[in-house]
Design brief:
It is a single chain. The protein is an alpha+beta fold and 90 residues long. Helix content is 59%, strand content 19%. The protein has a 3-stranded antiparallel beta sheet with strand order 1-2-3. The longest helix has 46 residues. The mean pLDDT is 81.
């Protein structure tokens, strides 16, 4: 195989690899989104199971919903168990 033909095939293969990596990333992100939606559904069900209106702060419900709290210089970020982040300015 001559060098020109080799380089053409190499370039072609590298392009295919990049396209397949991009496709794999999209599939992976879709799976992550499916997981997030499933967790959100579970969260909604948990809130809907409450027999009374939530009029006061519930530590139990808060712990069920919030995975992590991140404090920055000018905001507080609540990372939910679903991965969604909600920010509040300070």
């Amino acid at each position: 195989m001559n060098e020109l033909k080799y380089n053409e095939q190499l370039t072609s293969l590298e392009g295919r690899i990049k396209r397949q990596e991009k496709d794999l990333k999209l599939i992976s992100e879709a799976d992550d989104n499916d997981d997030m939606l499933e967790q959100l559904d579970m969260l909604i069900c948990s809130i809907e199971r409450q027999r009374t209106v939530i009029a006061t702060f519930s530590t139990e419900l808060f712990d069920e919903i919030v995975d992590r709290i991140i404090v920055n210089n000018n905001e507080i970020i609540f990372r939910l168990v679903s991965g969604i982040e909600l920010s509040e300015p300070m």
